[in-house]
Amino acid sequence: MVVKVTSICCIGAGYVGGPTMAMIALKCPHIKVTVVDISQPRIDAWNSDELPIYEPGLDEIVKQCRGKNLFFTTDVEGAIAESEMIFVSVNTPTKKTGLGKGKAADLTYWESAARTIAAVSKTNKIIVEKSTVPVRTAEAIEKVLQRNCNTSGVRFDILSNPEFLAEGTAMDDLTAPDRVLIGGKIEGQEGTDAVASLVEVYANWVPQERIITANLWSAELSKLAANAFLAQRISSINSMSALCEATGADVSQVAYALGKDSRIGPKFLNASVGFGGSCFQKDILNLAYICECHGLTEVADYWYSVVGMNDYQKNRFVKRVVSAMFNTIRNKKICMLGFAFKKDTGDTREAPAIDVGNGLIEDGARLAIYDPKVSDAQIAMDMGAGMSNITTYKSHIEALRDAHAVCVMTEWDEFKSYDWGEIYGVMQKPAFVFDGRLILDHDKLREIGFIVYALGKPIEP
Ligand code: NAD
């Protein structure tokens, strides 16, 4: 029987759990949505005016729904017990160990969530994998659920519903997704009703043709594959940026020409200092691990090279800074504009700024960091021991005062509208700009007097 869902719980109130549940609450006023987490500070923040994550448009939706049909609580067991459908959106980080170059996903948090679901469930539940998990995780989860449930006759239907949102545009992505992918039993087997129940939730705002159903393993693998393909595009254009510098070609012109080919398309072709975020590297390493487990070493190596290219790009950027600045940056103040892994988010997980910052500090630089959304405490946590060589600033102009160089690490729009003449005035001379995101007007900067190095662009004589 297709259950018309009226109560949903989501385990994990993070970058995915919070925004996705806020969207369901907004679009489905008839459904009670409860988001739970083991972290009391995170739940307190969701219940306050200062949400734990920054995402354009999220505040308004949470404020509109909170207390009506959207709730945040640490009462994990209570919320599970009273819900018909349970999304699991816990973190699935990378393990430190692995077979070869690949690294398995750590499913500790997932297993713990599954054990809790099993222990408190007295009625049938539809379990929805929202976290990104290795292909065939549902098989293992089913065993955990069955072996830990003490109430006889309780039925668990497991679905895969990977999340494709991108941080910074999460609310737009959730409002009008390219597709919603639901993996489950779809070929006349027992359990097909669970797929229909989840389809019905999304059908409240997503057009039917964008809701795709697939078998469980295809859905699980599709998410890893999607992130691997996206990261591969970035590494591909970054590899071209190195070749452009070596040959006098311009990576923006190459990307434009490539993007005009309708088979390639223009998106995700911006050369940069490298990709970051909590997902791309983690998911590729996991994909490579799964390949290695199946003896597919060559396939694993293919995907591993995407991560290798990303590391190369970050190292190359540091080397360029050092070589341009007369081969020494010892005791020089270098300002990093931006620390988040991309614009419109405060998320710094795997941000290129971390590796580049550490590389510059290793070479003796003093770092000044300004980011409009990342807190000083977050930077201190990410940079650890390196913090003794770092000062963080609340104003860009103070961060740039007396700096020898500026490195653009995040593509924040505000950097483009700065008064670069004023900035030139407060910096040491010669003043260097290293544009790691290709967002500034390089000709204008050169007119002002800056020495400019932009990734993938002809090098200054
Ligand atoms: P996150 O770290 O921001 O949030 C996960 C939350 O789960 C944390 O707050 C943690 O305290 C909580 N948690 C862990 N174990 C728990 C338990 N047993 N009970 C209750 N709460 C528990 O992670 P995220 O960025 O939201 O990512 C979640 C998943 O979604 C990951 O698998 C990730 O790969 C995937 N994903 C992330 C993004 C993204 O842009 N961040 C996009 C798509 C998919």
From TrEMBL:
<dbReference type="InterPro" id="IPR036291">
    <property type="entry name" value="NAD(P)-bd_dom_sf"/>
</dbReference>
<dbReference type="InterPro" id="IPR028356">
    <property type="entry name" value="UDPglc_DH_euk"/>
</dbReference>
<feature type="binding site">
    <location>
        <begin position="12"/>
        <end position="17"/>
    </location>
    <ligand>
        <name>NAD(+)</name>
    </ligand>
</feature>
<dbReference type="Pfam" id="PF03720">
    <property type="entry name" value="UDPG_MGDP_dh_C"/>
</dbReference>
<feature type="domain" description="UDP-glucose/GDP-mannose dehydrogenase C-terminal">
    <location>
        <begin position="335"/>
        <end position="442"/>
    </location>
</feature>
<comment type="similarity">
    <text>Belongs to the UDP-glucose/GDP-mannose dehydrogenase family.</text>
</comment>
<dbReference type="InterPro" id="IPR014027">
    <property type="entry name" value="UDP-Glc/GDP-Man_DH_C"/>
</dbReference>
<feature type="binding site">
    <location>
        <position position="37"/>
    </location>
    <ligand>
        <name>NAD(+)</name>
    </ligand>
</feature>
<dbReference type="InterPro" id="IPR001732">
    <property type="entry name" value="UDP-Glc/GDP-Man_DH_N"/>
</dbReference>
<feature type="binding site">
    <location>
        <begin position="279"/>
        <end position="282"/>
    </location>
    <ligand>
        <name>NAD(+)</name>
    </ligand>
</feature>
<feature type="binding site">
    <location>
        <position position="167"/>
    </location>
    <ligand>
        <name>NAD(+)</name>
    </ligand>
</feature>
<keyword id="KW-0560">Oxidoreductase</keyword>
<dbReference type="InterPro" id="IPR017476">
    <property type="entry name" value="UDP-Glc/GDP-Man"/>
</dbReference>
<protein>
    <recommendedName>
        <fullName>UDP-glucose 6-dehydrogenase</fullName>
        <ecNumber>1.1.1.22</ecNumber>
    </recommendedName>
</protein>
<dbReference type="InterPro" id="IPR014026">
    <property type="entry name" value="UDP-Glc/GDP-Man_DH_dimer"/>
</dbReference>
<feature type="active site" description="Nucleophile">
    <location>
        <position position="279"/>
    </location>
</feature>
<dbReference type="GO" id="GO:0051287">
    <property type="term" value="F:NAD binding"/>
</dbReference>
<dbReference type="GO" id="GO:0003979">
    <property type="term" value="F:UDP-glucose 6-dehydrogenase activity"/>
</dbReference>
<dbReference type="GO" id="GO:0006024">
    <property type="term" value="P:glycosaminoglycan biosynthetic process"/>
</dbReference>
<comment type="pathway">
    <text>Nucleotide-sugar biosynthesis; UDP-alpha-D-glucuronate biosynthesis; UDP-alpha-D-glucuronate from UDP-alpha-D-glucose: step 1/1.</text>
</comment>
<dbReference type="Pfam" id="PF00984">
    <property type="entry name" value="UDPG_MGDP_dh"/>
</dbReference>
<dbReference type="GO" id="GO:0006065">
    <property type="term" value="P:UDP-glucuronate biosynthetic process"/>
</dbReference>
<feature type="binding site">
    <location>
        <begin position="131"/>
        <end position="132"/>
    </location>
    <ligand>
        <name>NAD(+)</name>
    </ligand>
</feature>
<feature type="binding site">
    <location>
        <position position="42"/>
    </location>
    <ligand>
        <name>NAD(+)</name>
    </ligand>
</feature>
<dbReference type="InterPro" id="IPR036220">
    <property type="entry name" value="UDP-Glc/GDP-Man_DH_C_sf"/>
</dbReference>
<feature type="binding site">
    <location>
        <position position="349"/>
    </location>
    <ligand>
        <name>NAD(+)</name>
    </ligand>
</feature>
<dbReference type="GO" id="GO:0005634">
    <property type="term" value="C:nucleus"/>
</dbReference>
<feature type="binding site">
    <location>
        <begin position="90"/>
        <end position="94"/>
    </location>
    <ligand>
        <name>NAD(+)</name>
    </ligand>
</feature>
<keyword id="KW-0520">NAD</keyword>
<dbReference type="Pfam" id="PF03721">
    <property type="entry name" value="UDPG_MGDP_dh_N"/>
</dbReference>
<dbReference type="InterPro" id="IPR008927">
    <property type="entry name" value="6-PGluconate_DH-like_C_sf"/>
</dbReference>
